[in-house]
Amino acid sequence: MPSPYRALFDAPGTKAFSAAGLLGRMPLSMMGIGVVTMVSQLTGRYGLAGALSATIALSAAILGPQVSRLVDRHGQSRVLRPATLVALAATTGLLLVAHFGWPDWALFVCAAGIGAVPSLGAMIRARWAALYRGTPKLHTAYSFESVMDEVCFIFGPIVSIGLCTAWFPEAGPLLAACFLAAGVCWLTAQRATEPKPHPRERHGGGTALRSRALQVLVATFVATGAIFGSVDVVTVAFADERGHKGAASVVLAVYAAGSCVAGAVFGLLRLAGAPERRWLLGVTAMAVSMIPLLLVGNLPLLAVALFVAGLSIAPTMITTMSLIEEHVPRAQLTEGMTWVSTGLAVGVALGSSLGGTVIDAAGARAGYGVPALSGAVAVVVGFLGYRRLRRPAAGRGGTVEHHSEREDERRERHMA
Fold this sequence. Notes:
Elements: H1 4-8, H2 14-43, H3 46-74, H4 76-100, H5 104-114, H6 120-132, H7 137-166, H8 171-188, H9 212-241, H10 247-266, H11 275-288, H12 299-310, H13 313-327, H14 333-362, H15 364-367, H16 369-384, H17 386-389, H18 397-415
């Protein structure tokens, strides 16, 4: 039987935009951890390193949805290149300030500019949605993209931390900037598969965040992002305390590998039942998987615990993208997906900053209390907002349109 993943690439141009998206997304896993490693190498201050990583994430949270909203209105090719130039200029400034030891405030100014980097994952998923909306292939495409995200997180930290520790401190973020430039240029050159823009007059100019269900997803992923941000910073410090700082990249890659394996398997399944139930189960599993991190005492056990923890990530993210398509208008799909990334970015900012503070005050092992607490918050928010996810809004996304048609048929039969 042919692989569902192979069938995705029957459409012309899919291989090219997927490869460009993979290249352009490498900075997603390289930049933050690269800045943490670079600054800790140059200054020995994990608090400053975590705060800079948090600044990048918060800036992306503010600027990312605005960039994606412009993409929905004007198209990817017209918006992505200028936004990328801003991010690249800010990255160059950050590297120069760090290298020459200039004041801390200059580091934060440059870090804020890096937030203009566009959400390449949302851009690629929007292309898949334009091709396969309303077909089973879209579930497989979202699964494939989640696997690609995890491939970035498997190799990105290894490359970034490895270059920073083995070559020179600025090497990791520098290569991340090169990947971003190449990926965006390659993607925007591919006009045939670019989704059609939706000018303001076609959807009123409002924000996708008006969707009550999207609000729940974003709020939950703020707490989920805090898990990811704190795990990254704490793991680097945990390995450093044991004299093997370079091994942190391998441990974090194992974390991503667990998610990659789960995402690949999940994409082959055709699951029945409500997606919001699977989503809530995934959020709960992510929270529970943080508890063993409080008990580990060495790097091998930490790697095993993180691999198990990673198994719940990709399935939860895949289901989240399906829920976004149900609850967000097609004309705002890119923005809706970016809002979830924004929630994650805010969470990463909070988690990395709080994680760095706890490390400086009480050591790396105590830092793993931050992802455990963040997971508990995610579960609470998910349960409180669950009812909103059970009521798709009429006229939003392909799945919801089918839902609305079935509701109309039921009303007509009842009246008859």
